[in-house]
Amino acid sequence: MNQDRLLKVLVGPIVSEKSTMIADKANQIAFRVVADATKPEVKAAVELLFKVQVESVQILTIKGKQKRFGRFNGARSNVRKAYVCLQAGQEINFAQEVK
Question: Of 79, 80, 81, 85, nearest to 29 (Cα)?
């Protein structure tokens, strides 16, 4: 896979109550990813960036809601998430400094 593409696949981590709960319970990390990301790309990107072993990846797309802005109709953009399950003993610490 192209390394430039892998560096652009992950948009950022999702920090919420649900994501911290699954990080503690199931050793999973939630990421926001680009709209056309695939499971193998997400797995390779996480392993490249964070130097951890990935067990599995689940991807879902949340459709944007239809909204009205005054008299105009609009829509929020779709959001694609990836839940990355790490192998036992692996962990990602976002608070540490990247070298």
Answer: 85
Residue 31 identity (one-letter amino acid): F
In this structure, the chain runs to a length of 99
Give the CATH number, domain containing residue 14.
Answer: 3.30.70.330
Q: Is 56 domain-assigned?
A: yes
pTM: 0.86
Q: What pLDDT digit, counting tens, does each position of 13-59 carry?
A: 999 999 999 999 999 999 999 999 999 999 999 999 999 999 999 99
Name the domain count of the chain.
Answer: 1
Pairing of strands 79-86, 54-62: antiparallel
